[in-house]
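#dry-run=false #mode=assembly
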Amino acid sequence: VIHPAVTLLNAGLIDRTGGDFSFYEEGVTVAVGRLIEGLDRERLALAAALEVPVLSEPALGVRQGYMLEENYSTGYSTAPGFRGIRAQPQLDHRYLTEDVGYSLVLLTDLGRQVGVDTPVMDAVIAIASVVLDRDLRGDRKRTMSSLGLSDYGLEQLRAL
Amino acid sequence: VSQRRRWCARLQEDARLAFDDDTYTIGETSTLPYAVRLVEPAEIHVFLKLQAGLFVAGLPQHDTEALRSTLHEVYPSVEPAGASGRPRCRTATR
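#status=ok
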């Protein structure tokens, strides 16, 4: 939920500078943090539906030692563990091709199957697809079906 | 045959393992044990070694603890994801 949000909201900068900026320190402003939060709330809603205990991204970042502040607005830009990590050199990069094309596509597919709405994730998939001129959802790189899980109901998924 | 067993069977089929093969435990961690980026060919920069919050999950859940204890020797920050104690893939049949 972090990489796609930061990448899309800094798409012009990545395109123009070849990623010549600090991905977290400079890339995650308060507004960018709001998009991370919007995506993370949907991820947490999916986890709650599956009854899987999952930490919010900032809580996880603090626990892992990346971050000092447990929030979306300044937690990433002030994080010692992210300091110095540069942005990617071009938009066609795993931060979109994998983190959207595999992860978010799967999470929205899961959401449809278990009845959890994911409008922000759907929006990010749509915009990332336009930006890359590639149909990331249509590519179906990782879906409930490709994992053999498309016939599983909520109770069956919880039991895996 | 339960849905879970069928799914284990499919996974083992994709991994080219016999359905009754219990040689391998299947699992995944939630993230990298290090925050690391490639600086140039054959050179990396480690930004952080995770202190905690490196979650590991076995599939089915029963195998999580075995994975955790194995990985813990090298990565003390590893923690079990979710609950464990479910049936194992070894019972999968065609």
